[in-house]
Amino acid sequence: MKRKVFFISIILFLFFQKGISQSIIGTWKRTASIVFNADGTQKDMQKLMTKALPCTEEVKYVFETNGKMYTQTPKNCLPSQATEIVNWSIKGDAISLTSEGIKTITGEPTNYALSFKDGFVDFTHVYTADERTKFHVKAKKIVVTYKRI
């Protein structure tokens, strides 16, 4: 009997551990924003931004249970200290983001595939032909990595 209880406890612990670690709810910092171009080159836009404005490394992204995400920008970091509010929803392993600043050319939410691992999450967006044309984007996709803090 003790053996069964121990075994069930281990299974429940692992189940809840995985569920907690794979939730988007909480506070994150962006660690990378890699653009993969059609010509095979790639560039980490987060490194470029951090080099130009070192304080951007301290921007926090807070995902709340009510489907809202907002940014916390360090004082005197960016020209605009306005907090961006984004609506988010998850279905399976994909997240949809909607705000005035984040819309595709069709006015629809921007969709990202999610991949969680060891306290990090990757948001991957593959650009459509319409997006590449409209925004003059040479990129095939972008992978934005966040670290849970």
Give a short synopsis of this structure:
The protein is an alpha+beta fold. Helices cover 23% and strands 41% of the residues.
Description:
The chain has 149 residues and is α+β, with helices and mostly antiparallel strands. The chain has a single domain (24-148), classed as Lipocalin (Beta Barrel), CATH 2.40.128. The protein contains three helices and nine strands; from the N terminus they run H-E-E-H-E-E-E-E-E-E-H-E. It has helices spanning 2-21, 45-52, 129-134, and strands at residues 26-37, 42-44, 60-63, 68-72, 85-91, 94-98, 110-117, 120-126, 139-148. It has an eight-stranded antiparallel beta barrel. A hairpin with a 4-residue loop joins strand 1 and strand 2. The chain is globular and about 35 Å long.
